């Protein structure tokens, strides 16, 4: 079977709206390596868009899924519950950076988690309004498209969107937006669009994912917490991409003194199995009436078993510490590359959530074209990289945190050559 033949079949069988980045088709994978149907080998720095912090097919995750497969695959937790769901909730409640008693509910996708966080916030406060930020990405369902602060490709042709959603500015030093500018934008929303007493929640990514790996300054998180407390608004941290050791802590919000009221999570929670969650202050989580939360596949037993294994692996293999170390090494390599690559405008990092932004050296404008060239050159040498950013001019690095040292070093060599060329 050839990649070209499969590509033709894909174009005949599937709609163009499901955009596909790579022209090759996966046949098998192991840790940080992919093999395509023609036997070519690729170092995977995409990890299924931050899903595989514990790598492809981690033996402990596989063993947990296999064991659960022998017991049962589905009951629908709301019909016949099972202990593993309860014990996973207990584990997350102990670890989530939430003040006071915590409760957790499980769902299937990141968008579903965010959507349910909105439901919970509205049920608790009795208010309709939600504030999010430009450059934020929260999902592809109608509610989460409304929350997302990026039009192309996520919102094109799909409106109108649910109302009572407003977008503030997210701090971005490179683009001249300070924390004060961001807070001023919220005050403008309160003056022009919605009374703060009608706002249920402010939803933000502590590190913006699709937006370009923009890290929230500590003073911004503190100012949001103060603002929320003043007006009775809930602070919701969308940790779908930042969670499970990626930033060097289990959750990115652990880097800050201020705590959110609700946290959404998905992606690396279950090592490639579809599972998401909302964790939060117990009295907030208890706001919806029985039956108000759930879903047919929510908290699927195979995915829950995988998540237990993921939590074990993160602790046993010290992946938070490893994320810090690998990220530090990558940043050093990017800083060295600056001398021979004037297109590098900024390097941003929190643990192993690392990104590099490119501008055209002549005009100073964001350069999506240069970003594409770096991606293509890296892929020619067998390194898969993802782009992001409002202008498509950022490369983000999402290698499995379990990647072997030798392979990581090889990948950084490929990256250095791609940047130098």
Describe the fold and architecture.
The protein is an alpha/beta fold and 421 residues long. Helix content is 38%, strand content 17%. The chain is built from 13 helices and 15 strands. The chain has helices at residues 3-13, 47-50, 59-71, 83-95, 110-125, 142-147, 179-192, 218-231, 282-285, 301-316, 319-337, 368-380, 405-420, and strands spanning 26-30, 33-36, 41-44, 102-107, 129-133, 165-168, 199-204, 234-238, 262-265, 276-281, 344-350, 353-358, 383-384, 386-388, 394-397. Strands 4-10-9-8-7-5-6 form a 7-stranded mixed sheet, with helices on both faces. Strands 1-2-3-13 form a 4-stranded mixed sheet. Strands 11-12-15-14 form a 4-stranded antiparallel sheet, covered by helices on one side. A hairpin with a 4-residue loop joins β2 (33-36) and β3. α3 (59-71) runs antiparallel to α10 and α12 (368-380) crosses α13. It is globular and about 55 Å long. The two termini are 33 Å apart.
Question: Gist?
Answer:
With 421 residues, the chain is an alpha/beta fold. The protein has helices spanning 3-13, 47-50, 59-71, 83-95, 110-125, 142-147, 179-192, 218-231, 282-285, 301-316, 319-337, 368-380, 405-420; strands spanning 26-30, 33-36, 41-44, 102-107, 129-133, 165-168, 199-204, 234-238, 262-265, 276-281, 344-350, 353-358, 383-384, 386-388, 394-397. The strands form 3 sheets. A 7-stranded mixed sheet has the order 4-10-9-8-7-5-6, with helices on both faces.
